Structure formats: C-alpha cells, structure tokens
Task: inverse folding
C-alpha cells in the first residue's frame, strides 16, 4: 500500500481538481493507496474543498489545523495517519505530477534503495524554472555541498518515495518544520545507513514571480540550514535522540513504541 502525504496551503482554487487528477493517477499505478491531505493552516477554502473530495473518495483523508506550521510540519502530521508500506510526498499544486511516481517505484524495486528522490540536476530531468528560482537553487546546493560534503544533487523537490521503516526511524529526529526539512531528513537517513537513489523529474512551473519564497523565507532557510549544521557537527543532537518506532493503531493514529 502507498500512503501519499500531500501538504496544502491556500490551494483552494485548484485542490479539488488536483485531487481528482491524483486519484486517477494513483489508480492507474495498480497499487492500493491513500491520499492524506494536510491543510497547513490555510486561510482560504482549502479545507472545505478537500472535505468535498473526501466525501466522494474513500481514499482521501483530511488532516487539518488552524495555524500554518510549514511544509515539514505538515508532512510530519500527515505521517501520523499513514498506513502504507511505502510513503510518498506529493506537492498539492502538482508542479511535480504524481504520474512520475511509476519511475520511482521501478527504481526502488530494481535497486533496492530505501529512498528515491527526484532531482532537478539529473541529466534527463526536464525543468523550466524562473531565473530567480534557478539562482536560489544553485546557491543552496553549493551551500549544502560545502557544509555537509553530501553527494545528494538536489534535496528540495517535493516528490520523494520512502520505505516505511525509514520514516519510522528518522521522523522522530526531525527538528526543522519548514523548507530545510528535506535536507535534515535525508542527511539523517544517510547517516543511519539508508540508501538513496535519484531519478529524473519533469517540473511544470505554475506560479508567478518566483513563487511564494520571499526574502524572509530565504533568511529562514539559511538559519535552519546552519542550525542543522550545528546539530550535526557540534552538538551531535541527532546522535542523542531516542529511536522510536511509530506505527498506526487500528484507527490509523500513530503510537510510539
């Protein structure tokens, strides 16, 4: 079974159509699935639109809260309700269309990898990004390589596939709630011996003016990234975290053991 965790913030205009498209896509993959939509404190009609879709499709489950906590926080909240053997992250705007997950599944099966991530820097990727986003992405990639000597070419694309045991081990360690969440999760996974492969992706960019990332977000990303660096290199915070296994009970709610 595949659990799809889909964070959503102010996506009310498109979320119902995107969910219908996602349902059709995942049915075509031939695996049982569930889509856990996490309404991350939206102040538009995202919640009511997802509720309408939830009434039509038993595969959809809504998780909602009133205060925006960031993408990382939304993914952690959605994980609490995930029942699948495989977990995938899918952005609700579908700029990274979930039809590409078929390639992720094949790669995981053929390589035995624990994690498959999409990379904009894969030579076969098709990416049409605004110049602003290209510059920010390149700078962030250079920063990560310099700080962590990581061979991951791209940590940030929203489409990722995990074996359940990876997230059960790593999510309790994750501290960051916003944009640097992906970096923290992947670095800890590598440190604990999980294997990662990268596959090409196709991104269709919808948003205007570089999207939602503003100057304050860039400053927050830098601050969170340096916080991860400090916890890895100096405080050894992650080494001290108790490893727990998070397993959903019969009601689909997670429990720590």
Result:
């Amino acid at each position: 079974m595949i659990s799809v965790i889909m964070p959503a913030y102010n996506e009310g205009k498109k979320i119902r159509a995107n969910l219908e498209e996602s349902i059709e896509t995942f049915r075509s993959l031939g695996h049982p699935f569930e889509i856990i939509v996490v309404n991350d404190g939206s102040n538009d009609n995202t919640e009511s639109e997802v509720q309408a879709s939830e009434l039509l499709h038993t595969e959809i489950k809504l998780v909602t809260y009133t205060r925006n906590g960031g993408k990382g926080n939304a993914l952690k909240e959605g994980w609490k309700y995930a029942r699948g053997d495989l977990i995938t992250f899918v952005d609700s705007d579908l700029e990274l269309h979930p039809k590409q997950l078929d390639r992720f599944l094949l790669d995981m099966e053929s390589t035995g990898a624990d994690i498959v991530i999409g990379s904009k820097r894969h030579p076969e990727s098709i990416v049409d990004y605004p110049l602003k986003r290209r510059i920010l992405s390149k700078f962030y990639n250079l920063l990560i390589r310099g700080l962590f000597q990581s061979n991951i070419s791209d940590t940030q694309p929203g489409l990722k596939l995990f074996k359940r045991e990876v997230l059960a081990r790593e999510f309790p360690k994750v501290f960051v709630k916003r944009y640097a969440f992906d970096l923290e999760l992947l670095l800890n996974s590598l440190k604990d011996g999980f294997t990662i492969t990268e596959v090409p992706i196709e991104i269709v960019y919808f948003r205007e003016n570089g999207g939602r990332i503003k100057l304050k977000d860039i400053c927050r990303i830098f601050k969170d990234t340096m916080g991860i660096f400090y916890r890895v290199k100096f405080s050894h915070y992650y080494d001290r975290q108790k490893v727990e296994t998070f397993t959903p009970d019969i009601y689909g709610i997670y429990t720590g053991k």
Summary: The CA atoms of residues 122 and 200 lie 5 Å apart.
